[in-house]
Design brief:
By secondary structure, the chain is an all-alpha fold. Helix content is about 60%, strand content about 0%.
Length: about 210
């Protein structure tokens, strides 16, 4: 990462997750480029306190029908967990964004903030069962890996990171072409490739 990218993610970690990492010196031009990037990716509110907060409609995803079916059942369950439903909704939004070829840095940060704030109230056994039912468990781990590799999360903060813990420790070393055939089942090779591409898309800031 270049100095602009390093400072960008330091500022996001500081603003979104309460870290206190020092910044490296940069030229005025680079600071302006950093702010433009933050504004474009709708994360300026984590960097500048007076920036307007842009909201995300987490219910706007292609898994909406399946999510509503799960939610309807959950509302009538004896051990109803609305926080777990909220966690699922946020993660489905991010998965949909990634599959669509977009990078929602805002959505991934909000996922991390939710985990830090309400993670102790989430039923991760139930959450994982929903992931498997929807066939998105590896995609969920993909975004967990981004929180680990770019935002300093620990593996223990992401209990749903079960089958690909090694993937969370490094960016994938494979770069196979992403195809709809692979996406249908989210195999390991695809997850490695998508993590690498997602990481590159997020961290690529021109100096």
């Amino acid at each position: 990462m270049n100095v602009l990218t390093r400072n960008y993610f330091r500022m996001l970690r500081n603003g979104a997750f309460g870290e206190n990492e020092p910044m490296e010196p940069m030229s005025k031009y680079k600071w302006e480029a950093l702010y433009r990037r933050a504004e474009r990716e709708e994360v300026l509110m984590y960097i500048k306190e007076d920036a307007p907060h842009s909201s995300i409609n987490f219910e706007d995803h292609t898994q909406g029908r399946k999510f509503r079916s799960i939610a309807k059942t959950e509302y009538h369950a004896i051990d109803t967990s609305l926080d777990t439903l909220d966690m699922l909704n946020i993660m489905l939004y991010n998965i949909d964004q990634t599959i669509s070829g977009h990078t929602s840095l805002h959505g991934i940060i909000e996922m991390g903030r939710f985990l830090r704030k309400k993670g102790d109230k989430v039923d991760f056994v139930k959450l994982e069962s929903w992931f498997h039912k929807l066939g998105v468990n590896r995609m969920a781990e993909l975004h967990g890996s981004v929180l680990i590799s770019l935002f300093g999360f620990q593996i223990d903060e992401l209990p749903f990171m079960t089958s690909e813990r090694a993937l969370a420790e490094k960016l994938g070393d494979q770069d196979k072409r992403l195809t709809l055939t692979y996406l249908a089942h989210y195999p390991l090779s695809t997850t490695h490739s998508m993590l690498r591409r997602l990481h590159n898309a997020i961290t690529q800031i021109e100096e």
